[in-house]
Amino acid sequence: MGLYDLSKHKRADRVEEINQYIAQNLAAGVNDDIIRYFADEDTYIRKAAYQTIGRLFKADYKLQSAIIAELRKLLVSESDHVRQTTINAAGEIGMMDFEAVVEFFDTGIFDHHHSVRNAVIGSLKKMAEKNPKPTLKWAKKYLHHEDKEIRREICHGLELRGRTHPQEVLPLLEQLQHDKSARVSKTLVHVIGQIAYKRGCLRIVINALNNWENQELVEKALDEIVSVHERYKNFATLTQQQAIDYIDEHYRGM
What we know:
Layout: H1 8-28, H2 32-38, H3 43-59, H4 64-74, H5 80-94, H6 102-108, H7 114-130, H8 132-140, H9 148-157, H10 159-164, H11 166-174, H12 182-196, H13 201-209, H14 215-231, H15 240-250
């Protein structure tokens, strides 16, 4: 039975059970229950497990070495779910201590399974949001990787930090403006749009785009910005028309 098939009270009990079993495994130097939860078909069971790892790492200094050692073992599992959950657990830790888990992302970003690589993207988003300095430094070294999927994943992973601190992310995104891969370019345009509709961000985005060289890509980004302001009108700071008016007035290329 999936976690969300349970009542609210029973879900809380189940999560507490996961917490206890994982803590007991780590203290005893075994991993039967950790593997069981990391491999579970229910994504919410796996989420509870990796969040438990993050909480234990933060709460108990004595367990930190054991946690990292266990995650190293799990990262070479044949199970895609286990490797995916391992990366997500590393992401929970990376929000506090990126250096402790950087090796997991250097490995996970090249994993053969998309779910593991997607876990890298998701973890990069939350780490860049909560622990930006080392995370963005790490991301920067992969911006020009020969594999277009790596570049696309890094681009996508910058999205959340860009929504609150666009000035930190836009210089990195700018480095991708001439990327020859359509997948990377589409992701770049998407990320720019996702940044631009947040409070105070449109001005910073337009100021940056004024200095970009690839006018064709910039035009696509502007179209996406306008579209996003309609698609997310219940969440956008400005109306679509206000966004159009701002672009007309401040974008120098039009």
